[in-house]
Structure formats: structure tokens, C-alpha cells
């Protein structure tokens, strides 16, 4: 089939008349328009289904999540017996130096990765210290950490614990915070005097 020259009609009215007389020439455009409309409808329907599913999942999660009243809790001491005894001996030494004593402090609350690190490296560094704790931290009146104290019991003879202790010591030294490791309060005053 030969396609006629549309400009043979001479003006725009003639061109429009040509397309009205020969609609088969425009079928690719009609097809594109129809596919575009169908695609948009399909996307809207899919979005509505996803929103409905998300809403149902949220409602199910809220109804199946147990509240605090479904569990039983009990209080526990912040410190073990050996840590309480150590604290009682550490407190007068800290008071003499006008320092405050904090117990069971998260390492991430005392040190943090440098701010100028790349985000992925900063996240890895944070993950490296986020679950670690310090037994005691001495702070000045501005709550700036001055010294970390670890009370090492028999569990610190374990190779895995020694690795965790090594990592903790490296992180603190890297941040410029001194740490001392003791097994008892014997000689504690002298060790603190040597550092502060």
C-alpha cells in the first residue's frame, strides 16, 4: 500500500482531513498512547495493593506484638559483689582528686570514631566498640573521661576475653584515654597517682 503525500493537501486543515480519512497511518501512535495509559493504570493498582498489604502487615504486627504486661521482669543489681567492693574502695580515692566515678559505662559513650572518617569505615569502627563496656570510668567535674579502670577477674584468662580486652585497650589508647587493669584494689591509689 502506498502512503500518500500528506502535504499534497496544502494546508493544516487538509492534513487533518487526510488523517481523518486515513486513520490506519496513526495506529503506532494510538498503540503507544494505549500502552502508556495501561502501564500507568497497572503501576497505580500495584501501588495500592502494596499500600494495602503494608497496612495489613502493620496491623497484624501491632496486634501480635506482646506488650510489656505479657512479660515478667525482675530488678537486678548494676554491679556484681566484687565490683561493689571495688567501687567502695575506689570512691574515696576519686573524691580526693575531685573525680566522679561511673560504673558499667558503654565504650561508645566514652569514645567515638573520628568525624572525618568515610561513612562505611565510621560504621565499622562504631560496630567494633558498640557492645563493649568499661567497669569504671573516672571523670572530671565537666564529665570528661580521665581514666578507665577494668576489674579483671578469672574470666580474663580466656583467650577470647583477652582478644576483646586487647581490642578495647587499643580503642581507648587510640582515643587518648588511659586504662588500667587491676584484679583488686591493692595498689590502686598508687596506680591512679602515677597516671593522674
Summarize the structure in words.
The protein has 196 residues and is of the alpha+beta class. The protein has 2 domains: 59 residues; 115 residues, tt1808, chain A (Alpha-Beta Complex). 51% of the residues lie in helices and 13% in strands. The protein has 6 helices and 4 strands, in the order αααβαββαβα. A 4-stranded mixed beta sheet has the order 1-2-3-4, with helices on both faces.
What structural keywords apply?
alpha+beta; 4-stranded mixed sheet; single chain; tt1808, chain A; elongated; 196 residues
Straight-line N-to-C gap: 99 Å
Number of strands: 4
SSE ordering = HHHEHEEHEH
Total helix count? 6
**What's the multimeric state?**
single chain
Unreliable parts: none
Provide the CATH architecture of the largest domain: Alpha-Beta Complex
Give the neighbour order of strands across the main sheet: 1-2-3-4
What is the CATH topology of the largest domain? tt1808, chain A
Structural class by secondary-structure content: alpha+beta
**How confident overall, as mean pLDDT?**
84
**Portion in strands:** 5-15%
What summary fits the major beta sheet? Answer: 4 strands, mixed
**Shape label:** elongated
Q: Could you say how many structural domains there are in total?
A: 2
CATH class of the largest domain: Alpha Beta
What is the helix fraction of residues, given as a range?
40-55%
What gyration radius follows from the Cα positions, in whole Å? Answer: 36 Å
